[in-house]
Specification:
It is elongated, with a radius of gyration of 20 Å. Helix content is 36%, strand content 25%. Bound molecules: zinc ion.
Length: 165
């Protein structure tokens, strides 16, 4: 276990005679697993975990916020984890208003003309929970929940030329 600021990072060590280097992985359930050679001391492993602490904590957080498997569309009424709690998404057709949590709903008020684009942005960001970077796997995931995402994204620059998504 390593302490990084106020965060504790417990980890599991799997030793193998064949390994010559140490690798760090965060498993699906959020467990931190080190594959290490027998000669690597606990002090050395603690050092390595501490050196990668920021990356590890970020990974563990993302794994714990993953949407449930089988959730394929992000539409009004869908539930997902937001700030560590389960919420339902409600996209409202309104000109003004703030994004906020109201009685368990994450409410996103948007003018109706913009709804397509706002839903695109929300879907895009939710896909980042599973895939932090714009990898082919990220775009495949977005394509699976929003087949017309290209067309939606192409419309974005008209709204905010300085924004990239
Ligand atoms: Zn992105």
């Amino acid at each position: 276990m390593v302490r990084w600021g106020t965060t504790r990072i417990p980890y599991v060590v799997r030793r193998s005679a064949r390994r010559t280097t140490v690798s760090i992985a965060v498993a699906q359930a959020g467990d931190v697993i080190l594959a290490a050679p027998y000669k690597a001391t606990i002090g050395r492993l603690d050092e390595l975990v501490l050196a990668k602490a920021k990356w590890i904590v970020e990974r563990v957080r993302r794994k714990s916020e993953r949407p449930a498997p089988g959730m394929r569309e992000y539409l009004s009424g869908e539930t997902f984890l937001y700030l560590g709690r389960q919420h339902r998404l409600r996209v409202e057709r309104e000109q003004a208003g703030q994004v906020g949590l109201i009685r368990g709903w994450l409410v996103v008020p948007v003018p109706s003309a913009l709804e397509r684009l706002v839903v695109y942005v929300v879907a895009h960001e939710l896909c980042h929970i599973e895939h932090p970077d714009h990898t082919p796997a990220f775009w495949a995931k977005l394509g699976s929940v929003m087949p017309d995402h290209d067309a939606r994204r192409d419309a974005l620059p008209d709204l905010g030329p300085r924004l990239t998504w």
